[in-house]
Amino acid sequence: MRLMVWLRHAQGECHSRRVMGVHHITWIATASGVCDAKVLADAMCWLVGDSEAVSLEESQSHHGTPIHLIEASFKRSGKATKSLARLGPTALDLLIEEITERVTEDNELHIRLDLLELIGGRIRISKPGRRATVKGKTKFEVYPGDDNIVVARKTLAHAREEALHLGLPEDAGLERQ
User: Fold this and answer.
1) Residue-range definition of the domain harbouring residue 130
2) Does 130 reside within a domain?
3) Residue 7 included in any domain
4) Which pLDDT tens digit goes with each residue over 103-140?
5) Within the chain, which residues score under 70 in pLDDT?
């Protein structure tokens, strides 16, 4: 979602400047073959708000055991940017706070969500560790002359405002691991 902001210059002219969005967003979860993949796919649908964005693939691990790969992604900027709001204001506040640690030189934001919390309908930002996670990655629209951290903060702040306006996430809480 792009938001147009009108800036008034000293000469009285108005120029538009948009709040940047993201190019794409991808969420990936893996689970063993004994897990109920439908439950995981449903959790991913809830996360992105669109069942058509979720795919489920059955594969084999290096050792030959069955595994499930569940992916949810938006390749178009508008839907990808809107999907950030689904994390909710509390999670977005945490991401804004940790932005310098999470954004790469390629303008990508890396996010991990606790998988079991997500299945329970809750958003919980997580760090790599012992619990299973859903890995998220999004790329910010950053152009020459723009500071990628400033763009990332503005984009996440805009998503936060949208989350507040829409009451997102639905029936979910956030705790820090």
Assistant:
1) 23-166
2) yes
3) no
4) 999 999 999 999 999 999 999 999 888 899 999 999 99
5) 1-19, 171-177
